[in-house]
């Protein structure tokens, strides 16, 4: 006998209760605090802030906890929260030249003004499991400290720019379009593209950037500079008539020096790719600058070779993991009405084919 | 219970104004896809965020909302969306098509005729009818501008050449007032005739794809076809096994592992109403014996 699909409401409530229980896990194990997540899973927090487009480490930690560590789910929670926040105004563009630097490296010059600063990096660690961490480890030996150098840390790109070796960075006063307040319209300008890919899925961007390195839209990138640190966010206060620093954010900025272009009339110059991401997110920032550069083929008069990373519409339409995961997973929802329509059609088509086949057989037998 | 931490129907008034502008434009140009700044909603993209935003922009406190998915009020996602508006807007809800002022739907048009006092809101996954023929939005927008729909007719023709039939059974493309080719959302083509000359306002929301389009009341909507291969609204050739209806769209339910099947109305309200009136199908029981 037919059991109607009743009780959806109770099923949902029960599923939510079970989910909450699973999230907490074994009650004999102490519950995670937001502080623990914020301090000890900082790179997860960074990713959630970057792709959630909201700089708030505590909320990101909450989202990670609520999402049971599923970062895309956490990003979704942050986005859904972010969209309800009122828009009070815009800040001045942050000045990354004035960054309080934790890490700054250049792959193009052995030494340079401001120096190479490794900072807290996995780069030269040996990837050996550290079983001391599995035992309740003691606090690590404090790292050596030094007073920050008072010298300025100029952008490497500025040094190249002074000699005219790299294309000048275009300066515009225009307010860029806001991806979160206006529908994405194509073609997009570079500001809009950068906006989209700074919140794009890290894995998607990584693979695209990697594909350009392997020849699908090759741009031959050098990391001119990678810098990580904090910058002040300044906002104009209309009542005061001047700008005030309202806080600071941690950023990763990557500028790549790419293969040069030139023509009969213009001497060859290096070109630029740019990446800027919330938090320490090096992989994402480097990938972003490679993809940014690949997307600039038109403006730089290069050929479109059909590489995915060159294809603005392809990249921008598919880079958002909140959109992608929602649409991908929606196929879990019931589709039995459509499926029924397909069943009917398929049965009719098969019926036609079989009837024709039996007719032919009958004719052949005659 | 209304959740007072959020504005009425969740969205802030600025966002609703933006949505209403898009809706008005869509109504002014029937079948044209209006881009709008879709918001992240607290349910995933692809799960009805477009429909939810349109519904949120249409709801007034004295509205009565019905939400269906696959024609049914009690499918999980319909339950979830109905709960969302109960919580954030506190509006009355109903399962009765005739009593609802706003109906949000996924994949079906109710069997009962709609009235001028109703708004039907469709959830749309891919609003572009030409998308699977041309993946680029920049191209398809141009094709709509130039009314360049040859590609679609070629596709339908190729179906006939290959299968003897137009091999599209749902999301069957339509032409609106002789101008725009429109995707009616993945409703079975059985529902297509109900799109035309409908007294209710029909609104289509695609959240992830950031598009809203509309059919104002009494709009002429024609399913694409050929003179020698006219459009046919098809359904399973059975009667409903619960209420005996012989003209409603049916779900096929597998009832054992020996090939046993039963067919029941996909529109649960339609089926229940008929059974309350005493109609009984092949496998149905009188309403009083049922556990509600």
Low-confidence stretches of chain B: none
According to DSSP, the number of beta strands of chain A is 4
The N- to C-terminal Cα distance of chain B equals 24 Å
First-to-last CA distance of chain A: 48 Å
Strand content of chain B: 15-25%
User: Given the C-alpha coordinates, what overall shape of chain B results?
Assistant: globular
Rg of chain B, Å, rounded: 20 Å
Alpha carbon gyration radius of chain A? 27 Å
Q: Globular, elongated, flat, extended or rod-shaped: what is the shape of chain A?
A: globular
Q: Largest beta sheet of chain A, briefly?
A: 4 strands, antiparallel
CATH class of the largest domain in chain B equals Alpha Beta
Name of the CATH architecture of the largest domain in chain B: 3-Layer(aba) Sandwich
Which oligomeric form is depicted?
heterodimer
Structural class of chain A: alpha+beta
Description of the structure:
Chain A has 366 residues and is of the alpha+beta class. Chain A contains 13 helices and 4 strands. Chain A folds into 3 domains: 14-82, no CATH class; 96-121 and 149-171 and 180-326, no CATH class; 334-365. Chain A has helices at 8-24, 34-40, 42-52, 57-66, 71-82, 131-134, 156-162, 190-198, 202-213, 282-295, 312-318, 321-329, 336-365, and strands at 100-105, 222-237, 242-261, 269-278. Chain A has a 4-stranded antiparallel β-sheet with strand order 1-2-3-4. In chain A, β3 (242-261) and β4 form a beta hairpin. In chain A, α9 (202-213) packs across α10. Mean pLDDT of chain A is 90; it is low at 1-5. Chain B has 2 domains: 13-223, Rossmann fold, CATH 3.40.50; 235-285, no CATH class. Helix content of chain B is 26%, strand content 17%. Chain B is globular and about 55 Å long. The two termini of chain B are 24 Å apart. The mean pLDDT of chain B is 93. The interface between A and B is large, with 50 and 65 residues.
């Amino acid at each position: 006998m037919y059991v109607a699909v009743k009780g959806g409401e109770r099923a949902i409530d029960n599923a939510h209760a079970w989910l909450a229980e699973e999230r907490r896990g074994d009650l004999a194990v102490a519950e995670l605090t937001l502080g623990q997540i914020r301090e000890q899973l900082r790179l997860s927090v960074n990713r959630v802030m970057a792709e959630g487009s909201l700089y708030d480490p505590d909320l990101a930690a909450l989202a990670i906890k609520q999402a049971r560590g599923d970062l895309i789910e956490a990003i979704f929670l942050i986005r859904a929260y972010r969209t309800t926040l009122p828009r009070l105004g815009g800040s001045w563009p942050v000045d990354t030249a004035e960054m309080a630097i934790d890490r700054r490296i250049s792959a193009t010059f052995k030494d340079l003004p401001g120096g190479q600063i490794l900072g807290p990096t996995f780069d030269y660690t040996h990837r050996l499991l550290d079983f001391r961490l599995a035992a309740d480890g003691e606090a690590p030996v404090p790292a050596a400290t030094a007073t920050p150098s008072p010298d300025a840390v100029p952008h490497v790109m500025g040094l190249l720019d002074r000699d005219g070796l790299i294309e000048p960075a275009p300066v515009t006063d225009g307010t860029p379009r806001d991806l979160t307040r206006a529908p994405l319209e194509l073609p997009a300008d570079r500001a809009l593209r950068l906006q989209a890919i700074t919140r794009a899925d890290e894995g998607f961007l990584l693979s695209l950037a990697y594909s350009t390195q392997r020849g699908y839209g090759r741009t031959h990138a050098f990391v001119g500079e990678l810098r990580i640190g904090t910058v002040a966010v300044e906002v104009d206060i209309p009542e005061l008539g001047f700008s005030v620093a309202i806080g600071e954010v941690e950023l990763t900025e990557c500028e790549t020096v790419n293969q040069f272009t030139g023509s009969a009339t213009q001497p060859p110059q290096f070109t630029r790719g740019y990446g800027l991401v919330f938090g320490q997110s090096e992989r994402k920032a480097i990938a972003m600058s490679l993809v940014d550069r690949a997307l600039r083929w038109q403006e730089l008069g290069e050929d479109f070779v059909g590489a995915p990373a060159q294809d603005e519409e392809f990249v921008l339409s598919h880079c958002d993991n909140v959109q992608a995961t929602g649409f991908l997973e929606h196929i879990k929802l019931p589709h039995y009405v459509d499926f029924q329509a397909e069943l009917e059609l398929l049965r009719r088509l098969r019926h036609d084919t079989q009837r024709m086949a039996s007719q032919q057989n009958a004719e052949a037998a005659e | 219970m209304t959740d007072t931490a959020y504005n009425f129907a969740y969205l802030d008034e600025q966002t609703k104004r933006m949505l209403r502008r898009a809706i008005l434009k869509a109504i002014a140009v029937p079948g044209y896809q209006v881009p709008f700044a879709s918001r992240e909603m607290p349910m995933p993209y692809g799960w009805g965020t477009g429909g939810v935003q349109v519904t949120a922009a249409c709801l007034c406190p004295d509205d009565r909302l019905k939400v269906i998915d696959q024609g049914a009020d009690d499918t999980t996602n319909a339950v979830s969306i109905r709960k969302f508006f109960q919580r954030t807007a506190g509006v009355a809800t109903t399962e009765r098509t005739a009593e609802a002022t706003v109906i949000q739907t996924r994949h079906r048009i109710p069997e009962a005729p709609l009235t001028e006092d109703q708004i039907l809101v469709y959830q749309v996954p891919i609003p572009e009818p030409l998308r699977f023929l041309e993946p680029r939005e920049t191209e398809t927008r141009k094709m709509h501008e130039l009314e360049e729909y040859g590609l679609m007719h070629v596709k339908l023709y190729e179906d006939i050449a290959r299968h003897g039939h137009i091999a599209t059974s749902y999301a069957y493309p339509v032409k609106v007032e002789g101008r725009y080719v429109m995707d009616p959302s993945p409703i079975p083509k059985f529902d297509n005739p109900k799109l035309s000359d409908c007294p209710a306002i029909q609104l289509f929301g695609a959240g992830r794809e950031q598009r809203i389009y509309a059919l104002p009341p009494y709009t002429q909507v024609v399913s694409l076809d050929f003179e020698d291969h006219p459009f046919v609204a098809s359904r399973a050739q059975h009667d409903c096994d619960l209420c005996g209806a012989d003209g409603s769209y049916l779900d096929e339910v597998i009832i054992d592992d020996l090939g046993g099947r039963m067919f029941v109305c996909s529109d649960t309200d339609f089926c229940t109403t008929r059974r309350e009136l005493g109609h009984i199908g092949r496998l149905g029981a009188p309403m009083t014996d049922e556990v509600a």
